[in-house]
Write a structure and sequence with these properties.
Blueprint lengths: L1 H9 L8 E8 L4 H5 L1 E6 L3 H17 L1 H6 L23 E5 L6 E5 L9 E3 L5 E5 L7 E3 H6 L26 H9 L15 E7 L14 E4 L3 E4 L12 E5 L1 E4 L10 E3 L5 E3 L1
Parallel strand pairs: 6-7
Antiparallel strand pairs: 1-9, 1-11, 2-8, 2-10, 3-4, 5-6, 13-14
């Protein structure tokens, strides 16, 4: 979770709902470099963007009375959804001089709270939000998005009879049938995609040939990045990797807004 690690190391709130620009580098000779690291991020597609904004809109409107009351609105409140995988989290390392030797000691930065959002429905059941499948206590944001205004191909079953046939010159029964059936279904799967990830690339040091030790900067929706490597046998002491966030105007980093809640004059939240 890039936003979490950035918050911990820079000691500021970095919201999940941004498009973070970052890169990953490995040191030559390090275990991650020799083993290789595959880097994955969420696909920056309209379906995911719409699903996330729709989830945020419903969350804020469910909470609008409580948010407007101010008393329960904490300083570091943020809308966050769960990723759709189970994995250990690599945590950033900070260093201080050793008290007794001329060396530096490495420590994990204090993590603080980075809780995922929850809301209670009318029956009193608590739900979180996840990019994964729908669950008893989890709203699957892609499943909920799929239920919103999906395209129907009912025009394909419309009448084949041309209205006022023969009355208007130029009208043709065959052309009418073509219009009735072409474009009745969308040019994509009519179910919200659950294939949300793309591979940025593999960084690896090779004994011969060309080594690739940096991904270069890439965009990571929601700041979520998955790293896959045989070097990761534990979450502790996996040294030799460096994550760099590109400089920009969002608290010092490049991270355009992915979704922003706005309270309208009608006292309803819209997400832009």
């Amino acid at each position: 979770m890039g936003a979490h690690q950035l918050s911990a190391t820079n000691r500021r709130l970095y919201r999940q709902s941004r498009l973070y620009s970052m890169k990953l580098d490995v040191e030559p000779g390090s275990l991650p470099a020799t083993a290789g690291v595959a880097v994955y991020v969420l696909r920056d597609i309209w379906d995911l963007h719409g699903a996330y904004k729709f989830a945020m809109k419903n969350y804020y409107n469910a909470m609008k009375e409580e948010l407007q009351a101010k008393g329960a609105n904490t300083r570091w409140h943020d809308f966050r959804v769960k990723p759709d995988f189970q994995a250990d989290a690599l945590e950033a390392v900070v260093s201080i001089p050793d008290n007794t030797t001329a060396t530096m000691d490495d420590f994990e930065a204090d993590q603080g709270d980075f809780d995922f959002s929850e809301v209670e429905d009318e029956s009193g059941t608590s739900h979180s939000f996840t990019l994964g499948p729908e669950g008893a206590n989890e709203y699957g944001v892609m499943n909920q998005w799929q239920a919103l205004d999906r395209v129907d191909d009912d025009p394909a079953s419309a009448s084949t009879i041309l209205p006022y046939a023969g009355l208007t010159p130029g009208q043709d029964e065959a052309n009418y049938d073509l219009l009735r059936t072409r474009g009745a279904a969308p040019p994509y799967g009519n179910v919200a995609s659950s294939r949300l990830w793309r591979r940025v690339g593999i960084i690896k040091e090779t004994p011969t040939g060309v080594s690739k030790l940096s991904t270069g900067y890439f965009d990571a929706p929601l700041g979520i990045v998955v790293l896959v490597s045989s070097a990761f046998t534990t979450t502790d002491q996996v040294y030799g990797m460096h994550v760099t966030f590109q400089a920009g105007d969002y608290k010092g980093v490049k991270a355009p807004a992915y979704a922003t809640p706005v309270l309208t004059e009608a006292m309803e939240y819209e997400v832009v």
